[in-house]
Design a protein that fits this description.
This protein is an alpha+beta fold. It is built from 7 helices and 28 strands.
């Protein structure tokens, strides 16, 4: 091969290598302030609600969040009329795993001087025939955002143009009265629980309650029950004098008409601690003599009661998962709203990190992104390979590390491993990671 041709090829290879290295060098320090899920296909999904422009919408979500939209609130960007249904898309973020999975930036802006910690975040979008809508100038959306984390000292932020967080207005943190009301209706099974008639060898009573508040008792409302003399203990006699909060009826032996009625109530002890008191009474339903029709009716009513009770227990568990507090504010733009404050610099130390996967995967060439998940601060900071020498560690708070590898693989370091490292000396940490595919990782996170 001609020497000049060899020289030309070598020069071109050298220029190409320098160009690649230059591009890598530039890329490793460039951060794009945008919403981008770290792993495609594993974003936090939206929930959708359909309504008409002239009717408005009220949504109560399982978290305890409530959204109220007045009629005629939206408009198209070009001013043309809205025809057909509007679709409201909503998703919430209440823990650092959800924030990480969504890819919503928690740095205040692209300069990355300030990072935010969240006490709850919500994203609202509205669409009509596939076109995104905006709120009219004189319209707003009322939001009561579930507050699972205390929000003292926080402010209301909006992600302007989906890039930079700006402080917009105040919010009000209040008790979730809707949760209290719903639980009250479920738990107040009985108003005045008994009308009793005692005889020397037995007790006969019927259940008395507010059927509107306890619909599961409707079918048993007028049913009388007998406690036989052998089961009439001093505790049972005392129980007849108490107003109980809840009652459950469980069949012990349907053929012999033996049932267990369990009564419970919550009260305060002498130390002002909440305690639950329970008593179970074995009883049989009382029918008119030889009245088979009444007994058959009772058996049908009992089946309906048992089905209704199961539904109420599911509803009770659901309501109990709602937040006890809500953060109330008005939205004048669609997008992402966040109850935030700046992360404290106290107890933070910068450490150089390296990982076992670097033996097989070059972080710079493969553009590996590292996420520091600050569990206690409900925040996430993104680090490109060029900044792995100054990862912020919190010495007195729980945190995790997650790296997104090629082919939808995840490498993670859990909090207990980090805590052990922080107890050692030095400012360089090498970590062995746990590997998993993205699907199983996010399934575990949820």
């Amino acid at each position: 091969m001609n020497t000049n041709i060899k020289l030309l090829i070598n020069t071109m290879l050298l220029i190409g290598l320098v160009s690649i290295m230059s591009n890598c060098s530039r890329h490793k320090t460039t951060y794009h302030q945008k919403i981008e899920a770290p792993v495609a296909g594993h974003d936090i999904p939206f929930q959708e609600y359909s309504f008409q422009q002239d009717s408005g919408l009220t949504v109560e979500r399982s978290t305890g969040t409530m959204i109220k939209i007045a009629p005629g609130s939206f408009e198209k960007n070009d001013g043309s009329p809205i025809t057909g249904p509007i679709t409201l898309k909503v998703r919430e973020f209440h823990n650092p795993s959800e924030i990480f999975q969504s890819g919503i930036p928690m740095s205040q802006d692209s300069l990355r001087n300030n990072f935010l910690q969240s006490a709850g975040m919500i994203e609202l979008r509205a669409f009509n025939n596939g076109e995104e809508l905006k709120l009219k100038n004189n319209k707003s959306v009322d939001v009561e955002l579930a507050g699972f984390k205390a929000s003292d000292g926080y402010q209301l932020y909006y992600l302007e143009n989906n890039k930079n967080w700006i402080v917009t207005d105040t919010f009000k943190s209040v008790e979730n009265e809707r949760k209290k009301t719903k639980l009250g209706k479920i738990l107040s099974f009985l108003g005045k629980p008994f009308r009793k008639k005692e005889v020397p060898d037995e007790i006969i009573f019927d259940l008395v309650g507010n059927v509107k508040e306890a619909p599961y008792l409707k079918n048993l409302q007028n049913q009388k029950w007998r406690v036989s003399g052998k089961n009439v203990t001093p505790a049972v006699v005392e129980a007849m004098r108490i107003n109980w909060d809840e009652v459950k009826v469980v069949a012990l032996n349907k053929k012999k008409n033996r049932f267990a009625l369990t009564f419970s109530t919550t009260m305060m002890d002498e130390n002002e601690s909440s305690i639950t008191k329970k008593i179970t009474v074995e009883a049989t339903p009382v029918f008119d003599q030889n009245n088979q029709l009444a007994q058959n009716s009772f058996e049908n009513d009992l089946k309906e009661y048992e089905l209704t009770l199961k539904k109420m227990e599911v509803e009770k568990k659901r309501v109990e998962q709602e937040a006890d507090m809500v953060n109330s504010f008005k939205v004048n733009k669609m997008g992402i709203w966040n109850i935030d404050k700046l992360m404290s610099a106290e107890g933070v130390t910068e450490v150089a990190v390296s990982f076992d996967f670097e033996k097989e995967i070059d972080p710079v060439v493969n553009n590996i992104t590292l996420f520091a998940i600050y569990v206690d601060d409900n925040s996430v900071i993104k680090y490109m390979p060029g900044d792995w020498k100054k990862v912020k560690f919190q010495t007195n708070k729980k945190m995790r590390l997650v790296a997104v590898l090629p082919n939808n693989k995840i490498a993670s370091v859990e909090a207990n491993v980090i805590d052990t490292k922080l107890k050692s000396t030095g400012n360089k940490f090498h970590f062995s990671t746990m590997r998993s595919d993205a699907g199983s990782f996010f399934k575990k996170e949820s």
